[in-house]
Write a structure and sequence with these properties.
mainly alpha, 3 helices, WH-like_DNA-bd_sf, transcription regulation, sigma factor, RNA_pol_sigma_r3/r4-like, RNA_pol_sigma70_r4_t2
């Protein structure tokens, strides 16, 4: 576990999931904010759940990253009204 996680992530995961400390107390112990602790927990738990970082896919499987670009339809110019 120690090589998978950054020190901040490891500390947050251990203090929350092993010792069941509240976020406020963990934030005080790590000299950071509760939001930073939540982010470290999210990243740390994600890395523990998928230690390969999503690289387990077969190279033969191609997942498109974006839709192919299509030209947008041309719009007519706006009419300007004058008095």
């Amino acid at each position: 576990m120690s090589t998978l996680l950054a020190p901040q992530e490891r500390a947050a995961v251990v203090l929350k999931d092993v010792f069941d400390l509240p976020l406020k107390e963990i934030a005080a112990m790590l000299s950071t904010t509760e939001g930073a602790v939540k982010a470290a927990l999210h990243r740390g738990r994600g890395r523990l759940a998928d230690p390969q970082g999503g690289k387990l896919r077969s190279p033969a499987v191609q997942v498109p990253t974006a839709r192919p670009s299509t030209p947008s339809p041309r719009r007519s110019p706006r009419t300007t009204w004058t008095d």
